[in-house]
Amino acid sequence: MPLLTRRRAADLDATILGMGNAAEASRSIKDETGAASGQGGARTVHLTKVYGTGDMAVRALDDVSVVLPERRFTAIMGPSGAGKSTLMHCVAGLEDATSGKVYVGDQELGALSDRRLTRLRRERIGFVFQAFNLLPTLTARDNILLPMTLAGTSPDQEWLDTVVRVLKLGDRLSHRPAEMSGGQQQRVALARALVTRPQIVFADEPTGNLDSRTGAEVLTLLRNAVDDLGQTVAMVTHDPVAAGHADSVVFLADGRIVDVMDAPTPDRVLDRMRGLGDTR
User: Fold this and answer.
1) Does residue 254 belong to any structural domain of this protein?
2) 178 lies in a domain?
3) Three-class SS state of 270
4) β pairing state of 99-104 and 107-108
5) Type and span of the H or E element at 256
6) Quick one: which of 96, 128, 196, 262 has the most CB atoms within 10 Å?
7) By three-state DSSP, how is residue 199 classified?
8) In the beta sheet, which residues pair with residue 125?
9) Residue 1 burial (CB < 10 Å; 0-12/13-18/19+)?
10) Backbone angles phi, psi at 160, to 5 degrees
């Protein structure tokens, strides 16, 4: 399996730094027809991703059609190897699809040049990673503004103030990462993802490095980003408690969508994961 695709290698450093960058969308998650529902968020139409060739080929995603609706919080779950991270990477433009289509809003990613894809990721997509990926020599404020600094743009001060207020970072802006707790660092990472007002934020196991109390705080902040800031969030997680904060959960197994759960609770999610053979 290749470590990097051509597009991903070209911009991996910028992506790792968190360079990401509104009517209610349909509640429907699955969209087998590829219709326009949920176009304010993101969607895939018959998406397939294969690594390798011949006898060594691995089908990570197999004919996946899914909608990540605007202004909603969607969790993506499944056993290890189910295709969760691959789905997120394809929708975020970090991996090329083998076949099928990926849309962010009404823009089909496969139709973009590398330069236009980089611009779309910078302006319309935010990333929150498990490892925070903050620069240790920069203050919280400078880390938050880093995507815009690199792009040569200035923040909308009113929006920046709103993000800082909602994430309760007003008294931490002059602190460097080493001077902050893990939860505070993750708040800074989330602020960095939100400051460009992206169309969708992808969170990859955002509580994986946090204790339970701090993890709960970060999940509440993601929930607030949807409810208070009108953000669209898609989160890959193994944690039923984390998934319980979402509006809907998409379950994957062997590269296919096997179920969708609205109004999830941790107990319901755990039961469904056990049914998929994941006993964690």
Assistant:
1) yes
2) yes
3) helix
4) antiparallel
5) strand 256-262
6) 128
7) coil
8) 200
9) exposed
10) -60, -45
Half-sphere exposure of 13 (CA within 13 A, CB side): 2
- Torsion angle (degrees, nearest 10) of CA 248, 126, 131, 73: -10
Q: At what angle do helices 157-166 and 212-227 cross, to 10 degrees?
A: 140
| Structure-token pair, residue 251 | 């379950």
> Which tokens is 181 given?
């707790």
**Number of structural domains in the chain:** 1
Sequence-distant contacts of 207-213: CB under 8 A, at least 24 apart: 207/130, 207/237, 207/239, 207/242, 208/130, 209/130, 209/131, 209/132, 209/182, 210/182, 210/183, 210/186, 211/182
Q: Which backbone phi and psi does 200 adopt, to 5 degrees?
A: -150, 145
Name the DSSP letter for residue 95: S
Domain that holds residue 152: 9-19+27-275
User: Mean pLDDT in runs of 10 for the chain (280 residues)?
Assistant: 40 39 33 41 96 91 96 95 94 94 94 91 85 92 91 88 88 96 89 89 86 85 88 94 96 96 96 80
Nearest to 251 by CA among 270, 232, 233, 267: 270
Residue 280 maps to a domain:
no
Residue 1 counted as domain residue = no
